[in-house]
Amino acid sequence: MGTGHRGRRGLLTKLTLSFGLLGAAAAIMGLGANATFTGTAETSGAYSSGTVALAPIGTSAVNNRLSVGASALAAGDTIQRAVDLKNTGSITLTSPTLATAASPSSLLDTDATNGLQLVIEKCSVAWTETGGPPYTYTCGGTTSTVLASTPVIGASYTLNNIATTANTDNYLRVTLTLPSAAPNSLQNQSSTITFTFTGTQRNAQAQ
Length: 207
Hints:
This protein has 207 residues and is α+β, with helices and mostly antiparallel strands. The protein contains two helices and nine strands; from the N terminus they run αββαβββββββ. It has helices at residues 2-34, 107-110, and strands spanning 78-86, 97-102, 117-123, 128-131, 135-138, 143-151, 157-158, 169-177, 193-198. The longest helix is centred in the first third of the chain and has 33 residues, at 2-34. The chain is elongated.
């Protein structure tokens, strides 16, 4: 009887071990069934936007005298001022434009025929300045027309022959003329003219 009891216990132990082994084998087989092969490839690229900017022009320094006014004008007088229009951004521009406005205003800017007339020219090198003020300028290189004669006030003048790439100088000479035919009504007039140059980014392109 003791021997039979030991036999049953041994059989139970064997069955338990067998079930345990079967369970472990099933777990391993289950893991194998869910496993997959993988491969990866990775890289990164840096992206940044550029800038559109024009160099300051109100410095009252050589090549930037446009903020210097003039007084006691007589019919036939001219005022010459240099300005360096320069793209200091990293994006090439389309042709810049110029807008002019007057505040306070007078017949000097509202009379389109007898009031101040505007001409802009460009020199391939920096203008040679003499005087101060009045200023006069001579070009040691070649000149080109940026804006032909027009009334001083305009909402959007297109500027020609302007270099639009980054960090390129455009040495300009702005000439204002009070026509010699200006009548007596233009005496004792006063206007403050604001010159606003605007650069716009080039057309969008693939990069």
